[in-house]
Amino acid sequence: MSTMENRQQAVQRLASAQKSARGAGGYSRWVNRPVGRQLAALAYVWGWTPNRVTALSALCSAAGILVLALVHPGIGMAVAVAVLLALGYALDSADGQLARLRGGGSAGGEWLDHVVDAVKVSSLHAAVLISWYRFFDLPREALLLVPLVFGVVQASSYFALTLTDQLRRVTAAKAGQSAVATPLVNPHEHAPVLASLLVLPVDYGLLCVVMLLLAAPPVFVVVYTLVMLANLAYFLLGCARWYREMSAL
């Protein structure tokens, strides 16, 4: 059996055991997970471990963030940042899928994945702040607060979602139920398309695409600010919902 046949079989196995599409943003659902599936199958054939894929994801994201902070905005710079961040995001999806192919992940692997994500979402907006300060001709200095607020919102959202997930698992375990927070489903499961489009503004993948607008700094400032406001609104509404859910456990 050839290597390509092995990879194809791995892709088919993953296609029948994907996370639920419910609640997933459009980019994550239709772009990132399918790309991550192909990367996971390739890593599986190569004999890579999930932690190795996580490390590569971290390197790609770090490279994109460094380019964002250190290089003057332009077309080449914008493409490099967007591609590196998108590749890091796809590999972030691939490590979990690779773990499923290998029979399940580990607590250490899950910890590493979460820590890398936490560092990524915090440092990305710090890099935007540095770029704006160094290279952008902002009409008002107060606009420097935008990436600062965005970083706080995304770091807080990530913590709130992670904590909510862990509390669900603990409660399920105490009740003697399955502690799996994100069940695997048939890939043909019906999930509302409109819902995935509505949460697209808070999809990290959209932020990767928005980085292409670094080639036109004034446009980037406007779009980035609008995405920040959407994330802030989602976080505030989400906190109220998550608190009610946690209080009811």
Could you list some keywords that capture this structure?
Four Helix Bundle (Hemerythrin (Met), subunit A); 249 residues; 2% strand; transmembrane
Record the SSE blueprint.
Blueprint: H1 3-15, E1 18-19, H2 26-46, H3 50-70, H4 75-101, H5 107-135, H6 145-174, E2 184-185, H7 193-198, H8 204-210, H9 217-248
Antiparallel strand pairs: 1-2
Helix pairs in contact: 1-2, 2-4, 3-4, 3-5, 4-8, 5-6, 6-9
Structure report:
By secondary structure, the chain is an all-alpha fold. It has one domain (3-248): Four Helix Bundle (Hemerythrin (Met), subunit A). The chain has helices at 3-15, 26-46, 50-70, 75-101, 107-135, 145-174, 193-198, 204-210, 217-248; strands spanning 18-19, 184-185. A two-stranded antiparallel ribbon has the order 1-2. Helix 1 packs antiparallel against helix 2 (26-46) and helix 2 (26-46) packs across helix 4. The model has no long low-confidence stretch (mean pLDDT 90).
